[in-house]
Design brief:
By secondary structure, this protein is of the alpha/beta class. The protein has two domains: 155 residues, 3-Layer(aba) Sandwich (Rossmann fold), CATH 3.40.50; 66 residues, no CATH class. It is built from nine helices and nine strands. The strands form two sheets. The chain has a six-stranded mixed sheet, sandwiched between helices. Strand 1 and strand 2 form a beta hairpin. The two termini are 35 Å apart. It binds adenosine-5'-diphosphate and magnesium ion. The site of magnesium ion has 4 residues, from helix 1.
Length: 237
């Protein structure tokens, strides 16, 4: 049995709107094992990003348990343009966490170049800034920045949703290759059933902040049990 990396138990999450507390997540429970890709699917506004923020500790208005057994996960965002400092070079962006950890310059540089190669960018990208890159290249940098600290678990929140379909396929291929080469696990979030089908081992369906169905990908897609899952599948056809 593979090691458990993340356990979420009976998680409720809340936002405060003009003094009113609104519950967004309701009794969410699941685990992610080493090497597993868990796909989280649900319509816009159902609470997917709220869940990823709770796991990362950004959203603190929660109750329930979030247990990290494999260290802190790292995040890949939908829009790397908003998560990458536009004033910094790609090299600096990649090296910053290593610098904070006290890794010497030569080693940081070597690691950054290695990461660029790993995500399919040439070493000249090191000197460029995010604004000078295409959307697909920027997302490759976002992925490199997430994995340079060697996390076991990556949370990818709609990482291909802002990209053209052909670029989407390339970035999905990259996620799949990195998973194989590095043994990574993903919590992979998408509103798109096709994307979830391509990447996931296990699928978890969220409706209005509740997990309504979880199972092996093939079971969920071939024999959906919940009406909401059926609705998402019908809409995807
Ligand atoms: N910072 C916030 N303050 C108040 N409500 C929020 C905030 N962020 C998101 N919400 C609300 O929480 C719900 C879930 O949002 P979100 O987790 O972003 O959904 P998803 O990622 O599935 O699209 C939505 O109704 C959204 O409007
Ligand atoms: Mg979201």
């Amino acid at each position: 049995m593979a090691e458990t990396l993340l356990e979420v138990r009976h998680l409720n999450a809340f936002y405060r709107n003009r003094g009113r507390r609104q519950q967004i997540l309701h009794d969410v429970s699941f685990t992610i094992h080493e090497g597993e890709v868990l796909g989280l699917v649900g319509e816009s506004g159902c609470g997917k990003t709220t869940l990823s923020r709770a796991i990362l500790g950004i959203n603190r208005e929660i109750d329930g348990e979030i247990l990290h057994h494999g260290g802190q996960p790292r995040m890949v965002f939908q829009d790397p343009a908003s998560s990458l400092n536009p004033a910094w070079t790609v090299g600096r962006l990649l090296e910053e966490p290593l610098r904070n950890a006290g890794v010497p310059k030569q080693e940081r540089l070597a690691r950054a170049i290695e990461m660029l190669d790993l995500v399919g960018l040439d070493s000249a990208s090191y000197e460029r800034r995010p604004g000078g890159l295409s959307g697909g290249q920027r997302q490759r940098v976002g992925i490199a920045a997430a994995i340079i600290g060697q996390p076991k678990l990556v949370i990818a929140d709609e990482p291909v949703s802002a990209l053209d379909v052909t670029i989407q396929a390339q970035i999905l291929d990259l996620f799949m290759r990195l998973r194989k080469e590095l043994g990574l696990s993903y919590l992979f979030i998408s509103h798109d059933m096709d994307v979830i089908w391509q990447i996931s081992d296990t699928v978890m369906v969220m409706e209005n902040g509740r997990i309504v169905e979880t199972g092996p990908r093939d079971d969920v897609f071939r024999d959906p049990q919940h009406p909401y899952t059926k609705k998402l599948l019908d809409a995807a056809l």
